[in-house]
Amino acid sequence: MDKSENYLEEIENISDAYEDVLLAMTDDEIEQEVLSEEGNPHQVAENVLEFMNSSIKRLRKNRLSKARQLYEDKSKKQTTEFSLNLTRKQKEDLLLNIIANNPQVGNALTIQHREFHNMSEQDLDDLLADLDALNLLKKSDDKP
To answer: Is residue 102 within 8 Å of residue 51, measured between CB atoms?
Structure first.
């Protein structure tokens, strides 16, 4: 467990303990506690609500960041694992073979891409990598 996880766990434990204390108190006891600290109960409630909202927002951003990182890692892994040592003509032939054996793939490509006009080498590699991720390369052609 790294330092940040220990810190978050410690905060969670403190929060749980504080929650237990608050749940055991009546509303009058809580209000009396706030007033004894020379505070305005409405201001305290507003501050707590603001704190909770900002915490939820940070949590959502953290989850989004983790999901984005997982997606990027998976995407990098997918592109680094796929490589064909073929000439452009062999790649085009492979793609034509996939299209011939999988009409739904051909229907998804524009005419421009079906004829490979203006398709860069990188676009061709990316398309083949995507088809490999869908297991269409092995289905159409037993060679990787």
So the answer is: no
